[in-house]
Design brief:
Blueprint lengths: L6 H20 L3 H8 L11 H34 L16 H29 L8 E8 L2 E5 L11 E5 L7 E5 L4 E6 L5 E5 L4 E5 L10 E4 L5 E7 L11 E7 L1 H13 L3 E2 L16 H6 L5
Parallel strand pairs: 1-5, 4-10
Antiparallel strand pairs: 1-2, 2-3, 3-11, 5-8, 6-7, 6-9, 9-10
Helix pairs in contact: 3-4
The protein binds copper (II) ion (CU).
Length: 297
C-alpha cells in the first residue's frame, strides 16, 4: 500500500523532519548537555539558598510551557491531517465562528498568565525575605564604571575600620563572600542607575542614586557553594557600562576573615564605608583622565 499524501503536505512533512533532525544533531556536545540539565541557566547556578527557588520557578515554567506546546502542536497536526483537502474538487468545511471555542482560547491563556503570575510573586516574596540580623552586611557601590565593596559589618575583624575594595575599569574588583552565611547587600550609587548582578546567583537588583541609609535597595543571599562566580552591571549606565565587571569568590568563613585582614594590611580600610561621590573613584576614561588631573593613584 502506498501513502497518497498531497504534495504540499509531503513537502511540509519533509521540512519538519529535516528541521528537527538538524536541531537534534546540533545539540549533542557535552557543554550543551550540561546546559540542558540546568535548563539553560548560568553555569554554577543556583549558588545560593535563595536562587534554588528561582531555578525551580524557571524549571516548572518550562515544564508548563512544554506541556502547553505539546497539546498545541498535537492539535495543529491533528487538525491539518484530519481536515485536509482530500481531492481537487471538494473544499473542506469552512467554519467561521465557534463561540465556545473562542471563549475557550480567550480564557485558557488568561488562566495560564494568572498561574505564572501567582508563582512569580510567591517566588519573589521568598527570595526577597530578609532576616533582621544578617551575619554580614556589605555596602555595594556601583559607580561609573566599576564597583566598591565595603565590608561594613566586619569592622571588628580589622580593628574597628571598614575593610573595602574598589575597582577601576581596567582593574576588575573581587567580591569575597563567606559560604553558608547570610550576607546582606545594601546598594548605593553616586551617579546613575546601575544594576548589581551575579548571574550564578540568579539574582539582580537595581541601584538607585538618591537612595540612602535604610531606603537603599537591598537583598540577602546565603551562598551554598565555594567557588568563583562572575558579576556585572546589567543596566546600561554609560559609555563604559561593559567594563563594569567584578569577580565573586565564595570561600570559607576563616578564609573570608583572613581576606579582610589582608585588605587591612594593604591599607584598604576606612573610618566609614566609601559610598561614592568623591570617595569612590569615578572611572571616566579611565585612569588616563585621572592622570591628566594629577589625581592618579
Ligand atoms: Cu553600571
Amino acid at each position: 500500500m502506498s501513502l497518497q499524501l498531497p504534495k504540499r503536505f509531503r513537502r511540509a512533512a519533509y521540512g519538519v523532519a529535516l528541521g528537527s533532525s538538524l536541531l537534534l544533531l546540533g545539540a549533542c556536545s557535552a557543554e550543551d548537555k550540561a546546559q540542558a540539565d540546568r535548563w539553560a541557566m548560568p553555569a554554577n547556578s543556583p549558588g545560593t539558598e535563595q536562587a534554588v527557588y528561582i531555578a525551580d520557578l524557571w524549571k516548572w515554567s518550562w515544564v508548563a510551557a512544554l506541556a502547553t506546546g505539546i497539546v498545541v502542536w498535537a492539535l495543529i497536526f491533528y487538525a491539518s491531517w484530519r481536515y485536509r483537502r482530500r481531492s481537487e474538487s471538494d473544499v473542506p468545511v469552512q467554519t467561521r465562528y465557534n463561540l465556545p471555542l473562542e471563549i475557550f482560547y480567550t480564557i485558557a491563556p488568561i488562566m495560564m498568565v494568572i498561574v505564572f503570575f501567582y508563582w512569580t510573586v510567591v517566588t519573589q516574596d521568598t527570595v526577597l525575605e530578609e532576616v533582621d540580623d544578617p551575619d554580614h552586611t556589605i555596602e555595594v557601590v556601583g559607580q561609573q564604571w566599576s564597583w566598591t565593596f565595603n565590608y561594613s559589618s566586619d569592622r571588628d575583624v580589622t580593628g574597628g575600620q571598614v575593610p573595602y575594595t574598589s575597582g577601576t575599569g581596567s582593574n576588575i574588583p573581587t567580591l569575597v563572600l563567606p559560604v553558608d552565611q547570610i550576607v546582606e547587600f545594601k546598594l548605593s550609587s553616586p551617579d546613575v542607575i546601575h544594576s548589581f548582578w551575579i548571574p550564578g546567583f540568579l539574582m539582580k537588583m537595581d541601584i538607585i542614586p538618591g537612595q540612602v541609609g535604610e531606603e537603599r535597595n537591598s537583598f540577602q543571599v546565603t551562598p551554598t557553594e565555594e567557588g568563583t562566580f562572575k558579576g556585572k552591571c546589567t543596566e546600561l549606565c554609560g559609555v563604559s557600562h561593559s567594563r563594569m565587571l567584578f569577580n565573586v569568590e565564595v570561600v570559607s568563613l576563616a578564609e573570608y576573615e583572613s581576606y579582610l585582614q589582608d585588605l587591612e594590611a594593604q591599607g584598604f580600610v576606612a573610618d566609614e564605608p566609601l559610598l561614592g561621590g568623591e570617595d569612590a573613584r569615578t572611572q571616566a576614561g579611565l585612569d588616563a583622565a585621572l592622570a591628566n588631573e594629577g589625581g592618579a593613584e
